[in-house]
């Protein structure tokens, strides 16, 4: 389990590095207004990916892990329902493109929405492969696929340079589509090796309505997640003037979402692991796993948005150019907002293993009703800073409520060491803020070096004081690789 978690984290890190490489290229070569169009298209795609990806993936992984029904039947019906969802979103994108461009006050967007329609089926099938590997707890396979896909996305840059110089947005979409097709082919080859593990231990068939309910429950919940993480960009594009503000806000969003996407590695692993323990009636073991996950998140993930929040303006200036400093305060709020949302997702994933999806459904519906008007008002009267602040407040409230509901099922899951980690992160924010306030630190290279040093010192302190312990699986993996390397060197 821990090895799978580490590999998934590595995959997510590669995802970020390649994504930021693409955005660095686009942001440095395109005007802010044009970059805002990229942000708008990517936001819509992210919204649909959240719906298609997490609903099917989490539902499939949960049912395969629990082994309540015939696995083959679960896979077939999950595929059928996913195809229905894919068809719906394809039609919305392709035939609704003029409507999207009208709402967003930009007629040039229509063609890009039509191209984006073809990304929907590719993504929908790709995530089913990830759900299969998660369900049989082959986390290393899903981690490999999650690593290969972003690397393949780098094809965007040569496509834009050589074939789409006059239309880089279209080049970006074509590059993403080719990356998905390649990853699907590789995933099918890898999963063929584990076909025996997909054999069922039950003769019961799963009702199609159960598949639909599970998938939609997860999907509706992730619509709420996507709404909070993505719709603010669309609102900024539609409401805030001048048009360049959408580009500046896109820059802030790109870094703000970092912690959320890192945390996907945790709730990708935590759901099948906890569901399996609960399915075996090992409630104590399940709760213990949850406590360990939370401590790892607070110790290894939270410092990242904390450092970004405390040095936001310098980061945007260094990565893009000085004009992006206007979004510095927005990034400070968004980096924490995304972490709060990641925690909300993880807590809800755990809750579905102990209980039904009703709380997640209720939280989603309430959020859908409340968040949109709050964001619109915040953007209209306060611009990008106020909408980012509204996002942080909304996700913070959702996180606290989710924790309180889960604690009713599991008891207190915040350990003493977890509290120490929270306090340590608060101190870290103050220290980093003072550092960047006193010294005028700019430049991508020096920023990267300072980030590495700060994070390294922080983790060293956490390990030295035994607040958190490096997972044994990771140490064993390092030892094995080190031994293998020494053996190869001895042979040569």
Kindly describe this structure.
The protein has 2 domains: about 230 residues, no CATH class; about 250 residues, no CATH class. Helices cover about 85% and strands about 0% of the residues. The chain has 20 helices and no strands.
What would you say about this model in short?
Its main location: membrane. With about 500 residues, the protein is mainly alpha-helical.
State the shape: globular
What order do the SSEs take from the amino end to the carboxyl end, as H and E? HHHHHHHHHHHHHHHHHHHH
The residue fraction in helices comes out at over 70%
What fraction strand?
Answer: under 5%
Largest beta-sheet characterization: none
Number of domains: 2
Average of per-residue pLDDT values: 78
For the secondary structure, the number of strands is 0
C-alpha end-to-end distance: 34 Å
Helix-and-strand structural type? mainly alpha
Radius of gyration: 22 Å
Low-confidence stretches: 473-492
| Total number of helices | 20
């Amino acid at each position: 389990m821990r090895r799978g978690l580490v590999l998934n984290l590595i995959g997510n890190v590669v995802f970020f590095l390649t994504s930021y490489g693409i955005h660095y290229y686009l942001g440095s070569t395109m005007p802010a207004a044009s970059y805002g169009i990229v942000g708008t298209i990517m936001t819509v795609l992210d919204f649909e990916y959240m719906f298609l990806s997490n609903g099917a993936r989490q539902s499939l992984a949960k049912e395969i892990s629990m082994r309540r029904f015939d696995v083959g039947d679960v896979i077939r019906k999950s595929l059928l329902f996913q195809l229905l969802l894919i068809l719906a979103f394809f039609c919305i994108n392709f035939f609704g493109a003029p409507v999207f461009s009208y709402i967003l006050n930009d007629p040039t967007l229509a063609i890009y929405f039509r191209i984006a329609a073809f990304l929907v089926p590719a993504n929908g099938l790709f995530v089913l492969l990830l759900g299969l590997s998660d369900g049989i707890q082959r986390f290393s396979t899903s981690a490999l696929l999650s690593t290969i896909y972003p690397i393949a996305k780098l094809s965007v840059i040569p496509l834009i340079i050589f074939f789409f110089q006059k239309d880089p947005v279209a080049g970006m979409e074509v590059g993403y589509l080719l990356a998905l097709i390649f990853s699907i082919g590789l995933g099918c080859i890898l999963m063929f090796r584990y076909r025996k593990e997909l054999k069922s231990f039950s003769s019961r068939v799963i009702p199609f309505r159960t598949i639909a309910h599970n998938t939609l429950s997860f999907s509706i919940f992730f619509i709420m997640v996507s709404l909070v993480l993505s719709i603010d960009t669309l609102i900024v594009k539609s409401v805030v003037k001048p048009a360049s503000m959408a580009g500046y806000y896109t820059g802030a969003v790109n870094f703000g979402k970092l912690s959320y996407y890192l945390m996907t590695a945790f709730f990708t692993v935590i759901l099948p692991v906890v569901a399996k323990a609960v399915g075996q009636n090992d409630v104590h073991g399940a709760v213990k796993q949850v406590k360990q996950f939370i401590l790892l998140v607070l110790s290894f993930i939270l410092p990242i948005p904390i450092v970004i929040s405390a040095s936001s303006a310098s980061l945007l200036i260094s990565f893009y150019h000085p004009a992006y400093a206007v979004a510095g305060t927005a990034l400070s709020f968004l980096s924490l907002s995304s972490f709060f949302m990641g925690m909300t997702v993880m807590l809800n994933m755990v809750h579905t293993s102990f209980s039904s999806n009703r709380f997640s459904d209720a939280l989603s519906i309430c959020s859908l009703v409340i968040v949109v008007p709050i964001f619109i008002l915040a953007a209209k009267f306060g611009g990008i800073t106020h909408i980012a602040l509204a996002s942080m407040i909304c996700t913070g409230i959702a996180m606290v409520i989710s924790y309180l509901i889960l604690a009713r099922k599991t008891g207190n899951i915040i350990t003493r060491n977890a509290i120490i980690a929270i306090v340590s992160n608060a101190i870290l924010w103050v220290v980093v803020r003072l550092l960047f306030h006193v010294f005028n630190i700019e430049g991508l290279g020096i920023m990267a070096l300072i980030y590495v040093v700060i994070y390294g010192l922080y983790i060293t302190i956490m390990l030295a004081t035994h607040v958190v312990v490096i997972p044994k699986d990771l140490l064993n993996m390092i030892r094995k690789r080190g031994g293998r390397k020494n053996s190869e060197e001895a042979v040569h």
